[in-house]
Amino acid sequence: MRSDMPGIEAEPRLPAAFWRLWWATGVTAVGDGVFAAAIALLTVTITRDPRLVSAVSAAAYLPWLLLSLPVGVFVDRCDRVGLLRPSQAIQAVIVTVLAVLAASGRLGIEVLAALAFGLGACTVVSANAAQAIVPDLAAGPLLHTANGHQQTITTIGREFAGPMIGSLLFAVAAALPFGVDAVLLTLSAVLLAALPRRGPRRVRHPPMRTAVADGLRWLARHRLLRTLALLLGANTFCAHLASATLVLLATQVLHLGTRGYGLLLAGAATGSLLGGLTGARLITRFGAIPVLLAALTANVIVFVGIGLSPNATALGVLLAGNGFIVTLWNIVTLGLRQQTVPSGMLGRVNSAYRMIGWGLIPLGALAGGLVAHAFGLRVPYLAAGVLRGIALLVALPVLIRSFRTCATAPSDGTTRHRE
Predict the structure, then answer these.
(1) Low-confidence residues of the chain, pLDDT below 70?
(2) Which among 322, 332, 238, 335 is positioned nearest to 274, based on CA atoms?
(3) Which of 306, 349, 308 lies closest to 325, judged by CA?
(4) Using CA atoms, how far apart are residues 380 and 383, in angstroms rounded to an integer?
(5) pLDDT tens digits, residue range 166-207?
(6) Residue 405: what pLDDT?
(7) CA pair distance 38, 104, nearest whole angstrom
(8) Rounded to the nearest 10 degrees, how much is the dihedral formed by the CA atoms of 125, 130, 133, 139?
(9) Are 116 and 60 in contact (CB under 8 A)?
(10) In principle, which of 55, 65, 341, 381 could form an S-S bond with 307, CB 3.0–4.6 Å?
């Protein structure tokens, strides 16, 4: 796009279709934040056993291990917008059932875990499809900007506005936040109807097993993405080892109430919001190597600090720092995958990457419950910080070498680099 002033090149703008996706993402993110705060508070009204609390969190993420690979094949073969809408509609139904059960007072941990698993399965579909849509709507030099906008609106909804609203609604009635989430999911599905349908060309597809193997093989041969996937797996294991019992740390050790817990999550989201607003600029100015490595190093310190935090204020500040760091990681690594992986394989490679990266989350959550039960609610964060430091040291030589290789390649945003 050119400016009206002669000789001045205007910055390209994101297309209208991207902003439709952005609005739908924002609505969904608010609902996710409402749900996240409410489900944690609902769980501790049923049980205060760290092992059972962590089991609900593990159930929500188990579909990433079980379903991610076949879902990636469908993302590559089917209309991606067509996958998003029904997955959100099913989520709305599940959350409505949860609201009814919460209102009736007949909700046990087993049923809560089963519903969390169902929601997680739908999330695997919607998250993989949404990430594959973004490069179709904002390719080339706009990709980091688009991912930054997506991260920002997701943070505002999921971590800032949503938890505050969810905790306040839960204080009124346990079922209320889940009903609101169901309405927001339905609204998002309606907004997605305005997106252009861009299904793949009609071709003869290989069998499911072959298609899955192709995605895994592509990822295994790419040294940088393979290393990032393994590092993500270690980091998410540690993150959920630590955070699975965060609600207990906040309410039992630091004595926060229902509203205080929501405010803690909202305050922590300010760091994620800042990361979404500034991430693309930081990457452009300093480059991917310093930004990513500084973020990973800082997060080791932050996790240890959270475990030692003396009060809710210190905990909130450190959680905000963690949010900022995680957002920078997401912008760098997501943009790299979207630029590097061919469009026709993005769904399969992305799902393989996230299966490795997120598949260990259930184990991390269960481990966190066991560690908290045996050694106290602060110890999971301390252990996670140490383990993240070890993982970073192991991956550091490959990251530096791989990123330097990428730095010598063309930077027009269209590179298809393989190692």
Answers:
(1) 1-12, 139-141, 197-205, 267, 402-419
(2) 322
(3) 306
(4) 5
(5) 888 998 998 999 999 999 999 988 888 877 766 555 556 677
(6) 65
(7) 16
(8) -140
(9) yes
(10) 381
C-alpha torsion angle, residues 221, 241, 29, 288 (rounded to 10): -40
Look at residues 47, 59, 119 and name the one whose alpha carbon lies nearest to residue 88: 119
**What's the whole-model pTM score?**
0.69
Q: Which residues contact residue 38 at a Cβ distance below 8 angstroms, ignoring those fewer than 6 apart?
A: 166, 167, 169, 170, 174, 177, 178, 181
The pLDDT of residue 200 is 52
User: Residue 7, by phi and psi: left (phi above 0), alpha (psi -120 to 50) or beta?
Assistant: left
Dihedral sign of CA atoms 114, 269, 50, 102 in order: negative
Q: Which two tokens stand for residue 220?
A: 């295994």
- Which amino acid type is present at position 342? P
| Alpha carbons 407 and 393: distance in angstroms, whole number | 22
Q: What does the block give as tokens for 418? A: 């393989």
What token pair was written down for 189?
């599905």
Rounded distance between C-alpha atoms, residue 128 and residue 144, angstroms: 18
